């Protein structure tokens, strides 16, 4: 009847809710709002130092100052990173998930193998690929030389380093997307395939018209995770090239300006606001598009 | 059964990955000794913050122990973090939280804006002093233990002493393998022409002349420091730097282009193949195993090289930047570890006591020997053959390096950022075919960063 009791007792659940709400406001929402406010000030990382509003100066510095060329390149890099990672990572993950879902012998083993890089973590992964891609004695360069008679500088190449970082990022997180697709695939009712089989569908047709529409929700989740993940990635860049060799992205710039730049926090705040707005636009568009496609039979 | 096992594997994998997310933000601060949470009786804790550097840390621990033995009322809490950016992060956090008494900074006081640098960025240390976070040491007796000139150059701001520079390092030299030089009848070059001739001779014998850790990029700055100090402003860097602010000199004037061009000559012809792929940690072993005849590195790496191959006989000479042998014969370098005492720390009095103890010549000698620095106190016997025979002859006109003297404009482009001229952007690795092309871009970036 009264699951939460009567009288004042009714307010207890609300009071309890206040605790996580307060934590959320203090540690998450508050700082986020403060970042937006800071982006219009010249606030410094020194307690008690005077703060004044400087209007759009920080945004002007982001887009039109002496080194804005590099900021624009960071933005382009972020977009390239996001598009390539989202498409390739999800494409490959879907392909492998479908393969593994066919009750292969040892499918659990494959699952674990593909998921392994996620477990290793960024530091270990960048160490592994740093050794694989060692320009002087790495195995990949030996392979290149044997196959094409060509040697690469990998993470120390102005033209190729970013491509290799994208590759490592995809290698690392593909297993994660795969797992989400796999759970989606396993929730597709088997009788639909049987019905399709009776109607004489080819393998491609049954994938296109049965599997794909029914895993649309996993698809949405994966797309969102990759878009947000890719646009806020800085750790793999930090660990492989440290932003050298034209590999900076917006998220890396925010980290760098905040923790290694000057004591001024206005510029990095402005950078994060710009980054946030970009992510927001892409996520909203993506969600709108994909929601349209989700179906239930 | 198999399914259950793999479920467990996957679950633990997920948990681990979450744990990994939490742990790789680089802030792992190792605390040695007492962590403060433990009650230390009546003892007053002195908190010292420093970065990790094996040999120096060991000497510090010893000094701290001796300090605690002599003054039993104090307890030293010596904390070290990873070097460079990780340290900078810790340093900022601790000083602003008033949670440190003595803190180390790299390179002495530098890059303070002058009246000829309108709009230049104020460095961290100066902002801390201006905000009253750093203790004034001017009246402390122990300051007199230190070389007055070094204190003046690297520890004084607004006529007050705020910092103790604990040693100098040479940066503009090349380590050379004495065995290789002897076997091939070569001697240390004193002019640029002799230097190129030496490199050619080595090449003709099938020996790679120079190794450098290009992957970390900053080691490429080291030979450039020699070129800059001896060539810019006709050997007066300060004049050139002031000139560039006033529009009298430029990043693409003849002298600046000569600097880039000479470095390009070395990079194109005499540096080890794929030097842009060598990371700093592995460079000493490449030299120590005789793969290259010379190594572009700072004098602080001598102990590392000696450890990598104890039998190796090696020396260190300044890169001969010009045709004037007398002008070439001195090192360019900087101050290394520099101590500040926090004004608002938990134990300022303890910090001063510790600095006083550290400044006593026998304690300092222990430290400077372990660190391999050139002493900033007078009459210190380092008993180091390397310092006495290889460095001292070239210390007469010791000059500070470009990165210590150059005051940058805010928001300068990447080709002149971080007080460097970034020769990694030159071909073959980079996009610029000639030194002049890079120089023109640098001048453009400098002008674009002019305050509006």
UniProtKB/TrEMBL annotation, chain A:
The answer on whether this UniProt entry bears the keyword Coiled coil reads: no
Per UniProt, the keywords (alphabetical) are:
Cell membrane, Membrane, Transmembrane, Transmembrane helix, Transport
The transmembrane residues are 12-40, 79-100, 112-133, 153-173, 212-238, 265-287
Q: Which InterPro entries match?
A: ABC_transporter_permease (IPR051393), MetI-like (IPR000515), MetI-like_sf (IPR035906)
Q: Where in the cell is it found?
A: Cell membrane
> Per its UniProt record, what SUPFAM superfamilies does this chain match?
MetI-like (SSF161098)
Q: Main localization of the protein? A: membrane
This protein's membrane topology, according to the annotation, is: Multi-pass membrane protein
Q: Which residues form the ABC transmembrane type-1 domain?
A: 75-286
Name the protein family.
Belongs to the binding-protein-dependent transport system permease family.
Q: What is this protein called?
A: Sugar ABC transporter permease
Specify the species.
Answer: Paenibacillus anaericanus
From TrEMBL, chain B:
The UniProt entry, under InterPro entries, shows: Bact_solute-bd_prot1, SBP
Tell me, what's a Pfam family for it?
SBP_bac_1
Return the Gene3D superfamilies for the record: Periplasmic binding protein-like II
Q: Which domain of life is it from?
A: Bacteria
What UniProt keywords apply to this chain's record, in alphabetical order? Cell membrane, Lipoprotein, Membrane, Palmitate, Signal
Q: Spell out the SUPFAM superfamilies in the cross-references.
A: Periplasmic binding protein-like II (SSF53850)
Q: Which residues form the signal peptide?
A: 1-22
Q: What is this protein called?
A: Extracellular solute-binding protein
- Species of origin: Paenibacillus anaericanus
Q: What is the lineage of its organism?
A: Bacteria, Bacillati, Bacillota, Bacilli, Bacillales
């Amino acid at each position: 009847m009264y699951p939460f009791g009567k009288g004042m007792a009714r307010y207890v659940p609300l009071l309890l809710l206040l605790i996580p709400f307060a934590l959320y406001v203090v540690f998450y929402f508050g700082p986020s709002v403060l970042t937006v406010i800071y982006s219009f000030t010249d606030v410094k990382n020194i307690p008690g130092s005077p703060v004044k509003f400087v209007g759009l100066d920080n945004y002007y510095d982001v887009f039109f100052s002496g080194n804005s060329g590099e900021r624009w390149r960071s933005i382009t890099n972020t977009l390239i990173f996001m598009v390539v990672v989202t498409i390739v990572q999800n494409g490959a993950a879907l392909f492998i998930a479908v393969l593994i879902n066919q009750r292969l012998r040892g499918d659990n083993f494959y699952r674990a193998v593909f998921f392994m890089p996620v477990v290793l973590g960024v530091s270990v992964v960048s160490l592994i690929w740093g050794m694989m891609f060692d320009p002087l004695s790495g195995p990949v360069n030996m392979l290149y030389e044997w196959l094409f008679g060509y040697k690469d500088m990998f993470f120390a190449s102005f033209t190729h380093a970013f491509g290799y970082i994208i590759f490592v990022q995809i290698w690392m997180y593909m297993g994660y997307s795969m797992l989400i697709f796999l759970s989606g695939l396993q929730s597709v009712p088997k009788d639909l395939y049987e019905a399709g089989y009776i109607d004489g569908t080819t393998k491609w047709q049954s994938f296109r018209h049965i599997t794909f529409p029914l895993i649309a929700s996993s698809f949405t989740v994966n797309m969102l995770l990759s878009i947000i993940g890719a646009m806020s990635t800085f750790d793999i860049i930090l660990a492989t090239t440290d932003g050298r060799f034209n590999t900076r992205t917006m998220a890396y710039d925010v980290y760098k300006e905040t923790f290694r730049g000057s004591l001024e926090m206005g510029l990095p705040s402005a950078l994060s606001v710009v980054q946030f707005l970009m992510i927001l636009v892409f996520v909203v568009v993506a969600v709108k598009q994909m929601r349209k496609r989700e179906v239930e039979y | 059964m198999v399914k259950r096992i793999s479920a467990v594997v996957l679950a633990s994998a997920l948990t681990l990955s979450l744990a990994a997310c939490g742990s790789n933000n680089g802030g792992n601060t190792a605390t040695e000794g007492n962590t403060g949470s433990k009650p230390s009786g009546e003892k007053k804790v002195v908190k010292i913050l420093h970065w990790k550097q094996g040999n120096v840390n060991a000497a510090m621990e010893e000094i701290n122990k001796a300090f605690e033995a002599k003054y039993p009322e104090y307890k030293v809490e010596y904390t070290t973090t990873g070097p460079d950016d990780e340290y900078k992060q810790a340093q900022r956090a601790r000083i602003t939280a008033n949670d440190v008494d003595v803190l180390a900074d790299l390179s002495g006081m530098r890059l303070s804006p002058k009246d000829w640098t309108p709009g230049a960025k104020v460095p961290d240390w100066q902002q801390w002093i201006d905000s009253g976070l750093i203790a004034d040491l001017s009246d402390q007796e122990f300051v007199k233990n230190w070389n007055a000139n070094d204190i003046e150059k690297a520890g004084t701001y607004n006529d007050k002493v705020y910092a103790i520079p604990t040693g100098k390092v040479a940066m503009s030299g090349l380590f050379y393998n004495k065995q290789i030089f002897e076997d091939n009848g070569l001697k240390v070059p004193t002019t640029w022409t002799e230097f190129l001739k030496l490199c050619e001779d080595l090449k003709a014998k099938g020996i790679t002349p120079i190794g450098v850790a290009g992957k970390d990029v900053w080691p490429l700055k080291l030979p450039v420091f020699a070129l800059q100090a001896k060539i810019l402003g006709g050997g007066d860097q300060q004049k050139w730097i002031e000139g560039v602010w006033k529009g009298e000199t430029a990043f693409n004037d003849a002298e600046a282009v000569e600097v880039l061009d000479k470095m390009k000559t070395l990079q194109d012809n005499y540096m080890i193949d794929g030097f842009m792929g060598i990371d700093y940690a592995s460079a000493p072993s490449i030299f120590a195993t005789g793969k290259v005849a010379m190594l572009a590195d700072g004098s602080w790496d001598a102990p590392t090289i000696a450890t990598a191959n104890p039998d190796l006989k090696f020396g260190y000479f300044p890169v001969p930047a010009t045709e004037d042998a007398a002008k070439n014969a001195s090192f360019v370098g900087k101050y290394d570890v520099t101590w500040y005492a926090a004004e608002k720390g938990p134990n300022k009095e303890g910090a001063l006591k510790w600095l006083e103890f550290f400044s006593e010549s026998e304690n300092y000698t222990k430290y400077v020997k372990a660190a391999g620095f050139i002493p900033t106190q007078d009459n210190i016997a380092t008993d180091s053959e390397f310092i006495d025979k290889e460095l001292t002859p070239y210390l007469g006109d010791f000059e500070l390096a470009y990165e210590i003297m150059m005051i940058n404009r805010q928001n300068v482009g990447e080709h002149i950022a971080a007080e460097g001229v970034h020769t990694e952007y030159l071909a073959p690795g980079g996009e610029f075919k000639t030194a002049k092309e890079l120089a023109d871009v640098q001048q453009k970036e400098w002008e674009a960063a002019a305050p509006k």
